[in-house]
Amino acid sequence: QRFVPSVKRRAFVARLVHEDIVSPRFFAPPVRARHLGPRRADDMATFAAPGAEHAVAKAQPAAGGFDFGQCPRNAALASAPVGKGYAAPTPMSTGTTICGVVYAGGVVLGADTRATGGSEVADKNCEKIHYLAPNIYCCGAGTAADTEKTTELIASQLELLRLSTSTQSRVVAAVTLLKRTLFKYQGHVSAALVLGGVDCTGPGLYQIYPHGSTARLPYVTMGSGSLAAMSVFETRYADGLDEAAAVSLVKDAIRAGIFNDLGSGSNVDITVIKTGGDATVMRGYETPNDTGPLRSAYERPRALKPAPGKATAVLSTVVEVADADAMQL
Amino acid sequence: GADSRVSTGTYIANRVSDKVSGLHDKIFMCRSGSAADTQAISDYVRHYLSTHALEVGKPPLVKTAAALAKRICYTNKEQLLAGVIIAGYDEADGGSVYVIPLGGTCLPVPFAIGGSGSTYIYGHVDNQYKAGMSLAECKKFVTEAVTRAMARDGSSGGIIRLVNISADGVDREYLTV
User: Fold this and answer.
1) N or C: which terminus of chain B has fewer CB atoms within 10 Å of its end residue's CB?
2) Residue from the list B11, B16, B36 with its beta carbon closest to the beta carbon of A213
3) Which residues pair with A196 in a beta bridge?
4) What percent of chain B has pLDDT over 70?
């Protein structure tokens, strides 16, 4: 039922507006919240758009959470009697090598750049080191969409927290927000993360598993290439490395993953977060798999080579625009 | 006391984990089962216990912590895979140990063992335990029990973490080999 203000209230509002204390828009009726369902027919009429009366009512928007409405359709497609059925496309996975190391002046994070969809490389140069805060970055392995969106969600929560507290984000805050989210989804959000950052308590490096368990360690590796990278770490890690040694260690660990694991490949990305909270993002720090020289060295048959000097022919420099009549039904 | 191995299948995810989590100044919880579940349980119990301690104005009792953990483990028994041992010191009961295995039972016991490696040392601990041991004897008892379990169980290994809780305070240490 509509809210009908009393005489006293209306007089009060009128005085506020008249004396220019508050703008009249402040007392306008609130925008109808989306979760209240489709608009009623009389609401539709308030739109000025002509023909709106004939518009089909909008489908009920989802209340939130996962929408399983397409599951029966997907199941029917997969088991379709015609031909072999349609299998759902494989989600893009970052079968990956990611790692991090704590050194004397902060944290170094490293990642490869291959994203696979099944056994095919979907992205040869994807970015696996995600921004969470100016002083906190997070490498993600598992399903690419899950790691991307989960880290974006937590990055926005951290920013809101920074705005309300006016203090630098803490690494444990990021870890806790991530582990609570992942535990809530009981491992179905396939995001295995290496989170590193520096805050007022010093450098911190954490590994976070899809089910929500975390561990704080001086060096961590995750992803399908984690065993290869861990072998490098276990051999060469030492407490209190300097920055050059730490970056070299991380680079070699990622290279071990790139060359020994089929799910990892392409380039090495490195991010260094130093005490004080400054982060240096080195995208493509090393590109040991550059295909440029290989591709340019390929000899193509003469017929496929563009003739020199006549590579492109301009067909016409004059373009005619003919106005067409509206379609007659 | 606890070992320090966390494994995902055959790979050791963390060889130096801390399975003895603090719930309050003088109350600790030994965790076994799913790492994610037990970390979540210990976070909840720590949170409730800290609020409770503020309300009561005194350090909480070990049996309170055990009751809180039992409540969580029992009501969510379908979803959780967690066997925990709550131990600590309080003024009312002195030192106490409560064991909460998989279903959510809470039992006050003089000593407790848990986890995958515990099956190999039931005979050993039943043989070695004596009531009224001194601190040194207790440390030796725990160390030897965990060592023998680590020797036989593939999912147990790493270092042995010991936490000694008494009226004087808390003493944490770890032993290698």
Assistant:
1) C
2) B36
3) A137, A205
4) 100
